[in-house]
Design brief:
metal-binding, Endonuclease III, domain 1, single chain, DNA-binding, Endonuclease Iii, domain 2, about 220 residues, mainly alpha
């Protein structure tokens, strides 16, 4: 079975389990999504969703955000971790959006990646979820499952993204990356893993991974 054939069958399973996967981070537009994704670095989506209501009540657009001080932002987002760096990035990118883009979030990957605190993954999430442009953001869950399922070598996040883009059709990317995240959390976590629950790895997992459990 080729990787593409395997990916097609995995996609069928994911579509059955998660026909309409919701976007995990609460937001109302591209700007609030951008801030939420930035905050989610090394932080759970659940915690971000607890923090952003307070922040967005004060500033849900770049014009209001720059009226706050970096210290004010930092005090609100502290539970998300890395608050000194994230608060400065939020303030600085908000000012750039005002100065360069009339307060709007650009629907362009390169321009997003130029913003402070916005890496390739964050930009990919915004492109996919705010602008519906095909992108394949790869987080730790997707990186882990791509290796477990033998769809990528797992040598780097960049390699995983490239490999997955080759085996899944572009029109599926925005949905399937969410489906894999939800599946990873529910059926194939890094901790507390139970092979008997992981129906996809049972059928399509790489042998070097599944043999540890099948032998038992």
């Amino acid at each position: 079975m080729t990787r593409k054939e395997k990916a097609k069958e995995i996609l069928n399973i994911l579509n059955n389990i998660y026909p309409e996967p919701p976007i995990p981070l609460d937001h109302k537009d591209a700007y609030t999504l951008l801030i939420a994704v930035l905050l989610s670095a090394q932080c759970t989506d659940e915690r971000v969703n607890k923090v952003t209501p307070e922040l967005f009540a004060l500033a849900d657009n770049p014009y209001d955000m720059v009226k706050l001080t970096v210290e004010q932002i930092k005090s609100i987002i502290r539970p998300c971790g890395l608050s000194p760096r994230k608060s400065k990035a939020i303030y600085d990118l908000s000012q750039i959006l005002i100065d360069k883009y009339n307060g709007e979030v650009p629907d362009d990957m390169a321009k997003l990646e130029e913003l402070p605190g916005v890496g390739h993954k964050t930009a990919s999430v915004v492109m996919a979820q705010a602008f519906n442009v095909p992108a394949f953001p790869v987080d730790t869950h997707i990186h882990r499952l791509a290796w477990r399922w033998g769809l990528s070598t797992g040598k780097s996040v960049e390699k995983t993204e490239a490999d997955l883009k080759k085996v899944f059709p572009p029109e599926t990317w925005n949905k399937v990356h969410l489906q894999i995240i939800y599946y990873a959390r529910e059926y194939s976590p890094a901790r507390g893993y139970r092979f008997e629950k992981d129906i996809i790895s049972q059928k399509y997992g790489r042998k070097s991974f599944t043999s540890k459990y099948i032998d038992k």
